[in-house]
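Problem 12. The chain below contains 474 residues. Write out its predicted structure in token notation.
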Amino acid sequence: MKNRKNIAYGTAVLVLALGFGAGASHWVQSGTSFAADLKQPIFIDQQAAADVAEIQPTQQLLADLYDQVAPSVVNIHVKATRSAAESGNDQNPFGFGLPQQDVPVEGEGSGWIFDNDGHIVTNNHVVDGATEITVYFSDGKWADGEVVATDPQADLAVVKVTPPDGVAWQPLTLAQSNSLRVGFSVVALGSPFGLQETMTAGVVSALGRSVPTDSSSTGSSYSLPDVIQTDTAINPGNSGGPLLNLNGEVVGVNFAINTTSGSNSGVGFAIPVSVVEKIVPALIADGGYHYSYLGIAGATINAQVAEENNLDENTLGVYVADVVADGPAGQAGVKAGDTVVGINDQQITHFEDLISYLFNNTKPGDTATLHILRGGSETVVDVTIAARPGQGASQAGQSRGNNEEMQVTISEAIKTATTAVRDAGLMDQVESASAKASTVEGQAVWIVTLTGADQTATVTVDGNTGEVLDLNVQ
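Solution.
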């Protein structure tokens, strides 16, 4: 069995880790015969070399870049409640399927100014379970933050603030989604280990990586497409900060490192701008993003997969290991054991190709043509793309729960509940707090649990008005 890799999700206090069921070859291609290659002359495209030379960083360029973008990068300090499993080192960083034993925690991350309406982009895992958010600006001023919406499947979140007087509010520009090449120089800004306004520089090490994100309440797991790999130093606390090109444009959001020590090892990952420009506006406008869904589980065909499944040598494509019976692909006739070699007019050679195409080129309700190898012959299957199960009409993550009519945020609900028990003289000390979205007689509510001094309070807060509907202390 291949060795498992760990990817650490950084905050200054909590180092969140995700185990990958893949070996080193998933991230690093092993060489086989370098000696033969060295015997051949190496020819360099002179125009390509000149193009690269034009974007090489100089001291002056990097210094000017820092002055330009640093005021748009923020430090995010979070007080939160998370389960005991989430606050350790072996938890799912996206918070699914874990016991809800509350543990008060504090952490730090990074973020950046997205627009002129007070919105800041960061990672979901930075603000997950937040009961209090403080956003610090480069001039030392600060403001309270409120989670607008989160997307655990992309590890993105939007926080809104009212900027303090005098803060230079400068939204960053998004780069074109196809503007990167391996070898291009990039810089990261953020607060590694709480050290605010830190810049590190490196290059794009690889493009098109896919990273498993979460296991949803349905038991399904998904992958984030088009992830950027970089050797730019990214450490705990960089999470949510921007990865920028040398024009100062956002090419990604830093969110993970491949490490065994919890700190930078030269393999960092950023959520690509192609994902940001789709999901963040949807979080702001609608509270959630609707992902395309096929309902298959599969793997890129390599020598091992081909041998284990009796496939012809050097067959390229995605081997379908399992099909959700009532999912879009299953209803269209796709079967376990099929090999997907194309979708519409796009050739598919890797699993990453398939999830990238689905994300970038389809939406729920579209019809896609899958080109499939089955029994030695090729066939086509028309599939009607669906939305991922469990998304519903709105996916507002921790901020709005599972009901699109929820107007009160989780932070507001917890504050309301805390004030209610204190004003009633029922609890003097609140040591931890958590809340979950629910319904009572068809009405959207927050069920808030507060603990302290050997007491537990359960407070039901109206999800639309913020009114306390029920209060019980034991």
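Discussion. The domain at 292-387 is CATH 2.30.42.10 (Pdz3 Domain). Students who got a different answer should revisit the alignment rule from Section 12.3.
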